[in-house]
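Aim 2 progress. For ABC transporter permease, the working sequence is reproduced below.
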Amino acid sequence: MATLTAPVATTTTAARAGDTDNRATYLSFGLAYLVGHGAAAVSGGPDPLLNLPGWLPMTLLGAGLAAGTGYATVAAARAQRGAGTADLLSGRLLGLSWIGGFAALFLAITGLTSTLGTPELPAVLWPAGSGLVVGLLYLGEGAVRRNVLHYGLGTWLALVSTTSLAFGTPGLFWVLALAGGGGYAVATVLEHRRLAAR
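Predicted C-alpha coordinates for this construct:
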Protein backbone atom coordinates (compact mmCIF):
# COMPACT_ATOMS: atom_id res chain seq x y z
CA MET A 1 0.00 0.00 0.00
CA ALA A 2 1.38 3.38 -1.01
CA THR A 3 1.45 6.22 1.47
CA LEU A 4 0.45 9.66 0.33
CA THR A 5 2.10 12.64 1.86
CA ALA A 6 1.14 16.25 1.49
CA PRO A 7 3.67 18.39 -0.33
CA VAL A 8 5.69 20.59 1.99
CA ALA A 9 6.53 24.11 0.92
CA THR A 10 10.23 24.69 1.17
CA THR A 11 12.14 27.90 1.04
CA THR A 12 15.57 27.41 -0.41
CA THR A 13 18.45 29.79 -0.55
CA ALA A 14 18.13 29.88 -4.32
CA ALA A 15 14.46 30.90 -4.05
CA ARG A 16 15.48 33.92 -2.02
CA ALA A 17 18.67 34.72 -3.88
CA GLY A 18 18.76 38.38 -4.76
CA ASP A 19 16.40 39.34 -1.93
CA THR A 20 18.12 41.82 0.33
CA ASP A 21 17.47 42.82 3.94
CA ASN A 22 17.90 46.60 3.74
CA ARG A 23 16.81 47.54 7.27
CA ALA A 24 20.27 48.41 8.63
CA THR A 25 21.17 50.18 5.40
CA TYR A 26 18.01 52.28 5.37
CA LEU A 27 18.35 53.12 9.06
CA SER A 28 22.01 54.19 8.69
CA PHE A 29 21.37 56.29 5.59
CA GLY A 30 18.26 57.81 7.18
CA LEU A 31 20.20 58.85 10.27
CA ALA A 32 23.00 60.20 8.07
CA TYR A 33 20.49 62.34 6.19
CA LEU A 34 18.71 63.50 9.33
CA VAL A 35 21.82 64.23 11.42
CA GLY A 36 24.30 65.24 8.69
CA HIS A 37 22.04 67.34 6.49
CA GLY A 38 20.15 68.44 9.60
CA ALA A 39 23.38 69.81 11.12
CA ALA A 40 24.07 71.66 7.87
CA ALA A 41 20.53 73.07 7.92
CA VAL A 42 20.63 74.39 11.50
CA SER A 43 24.13 75.86 11.11
CA GLY A 44 23.76 77.34 7.61
CA GLY A 45 22.42 80.52 6.13
CA PRO A 46 22.73 84.15 7.18
CA ASP A 47 21.06 83.60 10.58
CA PRO A 48 21.96 80.04 11.76
CA LEU A 49 20.02 78.40 14.58
CA LEU A 50 23.23 76.84 15.94
CA ASN A 51 26.83 77.82 15.55
CA LEU A 52 28.51 74.52 14.62
CA PRO A 53 32.02 74.01 13.29
CA GLY A 54 31.98 73.89 9.49
CA TRP A 55 33.46 70.39 9.41
CA LEU A 56 30.84 68.81 11.70
CA PRO A 57 27.85 68.39 9.31
CA MET A 58 30.01 66.72 6.65
CA THR A 59 31.66 64.48 9.25
CA LEU A 60 28.29 63.37 10.63
CA LEU A 61 26.93 62.77 7.15
CA GLY A 62 30.07 60.90 6.07
CA ALA A 63 30.06 58.64 9.14
CA GLY A 64 26.43 57.67 8.57
CA LEU A 65 26.94 57.10 4.87
CA ALA A 66 30.04 54.98 5.54
CA ALA A 67 28.09 52.80 7.98
CA GLY A 68 25.21 52.50 5.52
CA THR A 69 27.57 51.59 2.69
CA GLY A 70 29.09 48.86 4.85
CA TYR A 71 25.65 47.46 5.67
CA ALA A 72 24.61 47.65 2.02
CA THR A 73 27.74 45.76 0.94
CA VAL A 74 27.11 42.99 3.48
CA ALA A 75 23.42 42.77 2.47
CA ALA A 76 24.31 42.58 -1.23
CA ALA A 77 26.89 39.84 -0.57
CA ARG A 78 24.29 37.83 1.37
CA ALA A 79 21.79 38.27 -1.45
CA GLN A 80 24.26 36.73 -3.89
CA ARG A 81 24.52 33.45 -1.94
CA GLY A 82 22.96 30.67 -3.94
CA ALA A 83 22.30 32.95 -6.90
CA GLY A 84 22.57 31.67 -10.44
CA THR A 85 25.04 32.98 -13.00
CA ALA A 86 22.64 35.55 -14.43
CA ASP A 87 21.76 36.91 -10.96
CA LEU A 88 25.45 37.09 -10.02
CA LEU A 89 26.18 39.09 -13.15
CA SER A 90 23.25 41.43 -12.41
CA GLY A 91 24.54 41.96 -8.88
CA ARG A 92 28.05 42.76 -10.08
CA LEU A 93 26.78 45.16 -12.72
CA LEU A 94 24.64 46.92 -10.12
CA GLY A 95 27.72 47.26 -7.90
CA LEU A 96 29.71 48.75 -10.77
CA SER A 97 26.83 51.14 -11.49
CA TRP A 98 27.53 52.88 -8.18
CA ILE A 99 31.12 53.57 -9.23
CA GLY A 100 30.08 54.79 -12.68
CA GLY A 101 27.25 56.93 -11.33
CA PHE A 102 29.37 58.76 -8.79
CA ALA A 103 32.30 59.13 -11.19
CA ALA A 104 29.90 60.79 -13.67
CA LEU A 105 28.55 63.05 -10.90
CA PHE A 106 32.10 64.08 -9.96
CA LEU A 107 32.89 64.95 -13.57
CA ALA A 108 29.63 66.89 -13.99
CA ILE A 109 30.11 68.94 -10.83
CA THR A 110 33.78 69.59 -11.55
CA GLY A 111 33.00 70.61 -15.12
CA LEU A 112 30.12 72.89 -14.18
CA THR A 113 32.11 74.53 -11.40
CA SER A 114 35.08 75.31 -13.64
CA THR A 115 33.01 76.30 -16.69
CA LEU A 116 30.66 78.61 -14.78
CA GLY A 117 33.38 79.90 -12.45
CA THR A 118 31.23 79.33 -9.37
CA PRO A 119 33.28 77.74 -6.59
CA GLU A 120 30.24 77.62 -4.26
CA LEU A 121 28.34 75.32 -6.66
CA PRO A 122 29.71 72.01 -5.30
CA ALA A 123 28.29 72.78 -1.84
CA VAL A 124 24.81 72.64 -3.40
CA LEU A 125 25.30 70.10 -6.18
CA TRP A 126 27.04 67.38 -4.17
CA PRO A 127 24.24 66.78 -1.65
CA ALA A 128 21.45 67.08 -4.21
CA GLY A 129 23.35 65.26 -6.97
CA SER A 130 24.31 62.41 -4.66
CA GLY A 131 20.68 61.93 -3.66
CA LEU A 132 19.69 61.91 -7.33
CA VAL A 133 22.33 59.30 -8.23
CA VAL A 134 21.39 57.12 -5.24
CA GLY A 135 17.71 57.41 -6.16
CA LEU A 136 18.32 56.41 -9.76
CA LEU A 137 20.49 53.47 -8.70
CA TYR A 138 17.78 52.34 -6.26
CA LEU A 139 15.31 52.46 -9.15
CA GLY A 140 17.53 50.10 -11.14
CA GLU A 141 18.19 47.80 -8.20
CA GLY A 142 14.50 47.68 -7.32
CA ALA A 143 13.62 46.76 -10.90
CA VAL A 144 16.28 44.05 -11.19
CA ARG A 145 15.48 42.54 -7.78
CA ARG A 146 11.72 43.04 -8.18
CA ASN A 147 11.70 44.99 -4.92
CA VAL A 148 8.90 47.56 -5.15
CA LEU A 149 9.87 49.21 -1.85
CA HIS A 150 13.46 49.82 -3.01
CA TYR A 151 12.14 51.12 -6.33
CA GLY A 152 9.70 53.44 -4.55
CA LEU A 153 12.40 54.76 -2.21
CA GLY A 154 14.59 55.43 -5.25
CA THR A 155 11.82 57.42 -6.87
CA TRP A 156 11.29 59.41 -3.66
CA LEU A 157 15.01 60.17 -3.21
CA ALA A 158 15.43 61.25 -6.84
CA LEU A 159 12.44 63.60 -6.63
CA VAL A 160 13.32 64.99 -3.18
CA SER A 161 16.95 65.58 -4.12
CA THR A 162 16.19 67.44 -7.31
CA THR A 163 13.38 69.42 -5.67
CA SER A 164 15.76 70.52 -2.92
CA LEU A 165 17.73 72.55 -5.47
CA ALA A 166 14.85 75.04 -5.63
CA PHE A 167 15.32 75.99 -1.98
CA GLY A 168 18.91 77.28 -1.95
CA THR A 169 20.85 77.02 1.29
CA PRO A 170 20.07 76.19 4.01
CA GLY A 171 16.63 75.20 2.65
CA LEU A 172 18.18 72.47 0.52
CA PHE A 173 19.57 70.81 3.65
CA TRP A 174 16.21 71.06 5.46
CA VAL A 175 14.51 69.29 2.54
CA LEU A 176 17.16 66.56 2.39
CA ALA A 177 17.18 66.07 6.18
CA LEU A 178 13.43 65.92 6.66
CA ALA A 179 12.06 64.52 3.39
CA GLY A 180 15.10 62.38 2.52
CA GLY A 181 15.68 61.15 6.08
CA GLY A 182 11.93 60.70 6.51
CA GLY A 183 11.78 58.61 3.36
CA TYR A 184 14.46 56.31 4.72
CA ALA A 185 12.60 56.08 8.07
CA VAL A 186 9.38 55.03 6.36
CA ALA A 187 11.31 52.57 4.18
CA THR A 188 12.93 51.03 7.29
CA VAL A 189 9.51 50.32 8.81
CA LEU A 190 8.09 49.00 5.53
CA GLU A 191 11.18 46.83 4.97
CA HIS A 192 10.61 45.19 8.35
CA ARG A 193 7.01 44.43 7.35
CA ARG A 194 8.06 43.18 3.90
CA LEU A 195 10.56 40.75 5.38
CA ALA A 196 8.11 39.55 8.06
CA ALA A 197 5.51 38.79 5.38
CA ARG A 198 7.72 36.59 3.19
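The mean pLDDT is 87. This observation will guide construct design in the next reporting period.
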